[in-house]
Amino acid sequence: MFRTAELGRKVSKEEFERQAPDLRIELVDLQQALRQADFPVILVFAGVDGAGKSESMNLLNEWLDPRWILTRAYGPASDEERERPEYWRFWRDLPPKGRIGQFLSCWYSRPFMDLVNGAIDVATFDEYMARVITFEKTLADDGALILKFWMHLSKNAQKKRLKALEKDPNQSWRVTKQDWRHWEMYDSFMFAAEHLIARTSVADARWSIVEGEDHPYRSLTVLYTLRDALKHHLDRRRTLARADLPPAILGGGGGGVATAAPPVTDGLPTVLDALDMSATLSKGDYRKDLARQQGRVAVLQRKARARGISTVLVFEGWDAAGKGGSIRRLTRALDARQVTVIPVAAPTDEEQAQHYLWRFWRQLGRAGRVLVYDRSWYGRVLVERVEGFAADTEWRRAYAEIRDFEDQLVQHGIVLCKFWLHITKDEQLDRFRRREEIPYKRWKLTDEDWRNRENWHAYTLAVNEMVERTSTHFAPWTLVEANDKRHARVKVVRTVADALEAALADGAGKT
């Protein structure tokens, strides 16, 4: 692969200076056009030490308006970052629509170095790269333009570059003992690099191999690549807009229409039909059972906190199904200082400028905390699907995106419980009417609640498909028969206690 790179290519300083003014104007104009666009630009820089990764990033900050560029370079994870899933810090730093994000030593770095150092084998490395591919596809499908630059040097050119930096009093600090150790491992680096690029140069996130020995040539290659890709992407999005088509139809870079199996056939039984909606609990049994389960949760969560085991609880269900009441009975058993309840509403302007999962990634708490979502990321395949707020391709691909998100939570050791609180349509009507009559509950009932009843059947089909596609072995749904609030509350608290108990028995948490 690297043998076919254009090694030794050079551009004279005079030629660079001749091309630079017009090229810079083009890029500045494109950046201003990007500010009004509906997608971000993500630039990944990787490659051989001394090949010009940092210099290329600095040049973009110099030529363009740095106020609209986010530049991130990652070192070893901090305590705060280690207490969350690995990709938390990358999601947190993603640029919003209209801006450019530059990333160095990012999601490729750790598995790459582990392969070079022999800490993992190629099969394990491929598993890490599968996650990278999924991550980048998720962003590209949402419209992001992703450009990845592998900055390359031959072994002799790298040695020459490192020695030149060492001799420069203003640059010598940049060369470390680790750089020389990496140079001695050059062949191992090239083996890992060829495998990385072959594995992850796919679809809308391809690698550009840039010969880095000659500064003018390297700079022009990066700048022209960015110019051409950004111009094409802007033109393409404008074409979609003129055709009055949602950008999601073709994703970020022309990868094709996202596909998913068709929804459940209308008229067939759903998972909700199998629930015993007559399930009840007497007041006496309720008080006794609830107190016992709350006691279990209180003790188990303290143990989980000590072990650094976090808990994420997701509550979905019909309007007036009792989500709030169940959450209150659960949080009553917990230390309020360690619990955060997030009521999920329509996204803010800041959140709309990002992928829909961004706000949920950045809300993840530190080790040992409990995070409760009153509605969640499942809005993409429920209300956004039924009400038409998401394009067909957007909600269809969301199932795979959600499974991957939840898989990362569970692999990190987070206890994840998902509840659908189910009531019948008649029970909901009774609760709506009672709310109208109770002054301190009247505010809960809105015109939207009444409108949603008109789409009851559509929501039922959406819930069925949601459960079938996202109830996995690592993140199953708990369907709660909620016609009887006492039964529902006890079942919720008991389920959380059981999940905590299982996680503690498995030895999860700090080692």
Automatic annotation (TrEMBL):
It comes from the Bacteria. Keywords: Transferase. This is Polyphosphate:AMP phosphotransferase. GO terms for biological process: polyphosphate metabolic process. It holds the Pfam family PPK2. One of its GO terms (molecular function) is polyphosphate:AMP phosphotransferase activity. The keyword Repeat does not apply. Residues 11-234, 281-503 form the Polyphosphate kinase-2-related domain. The lineage of its organism: Bacteria, Pseudomonadati, Pseudomonadota, Alphaproteobacteria, Rhodospirillales. It comes from Roseospira goensis.
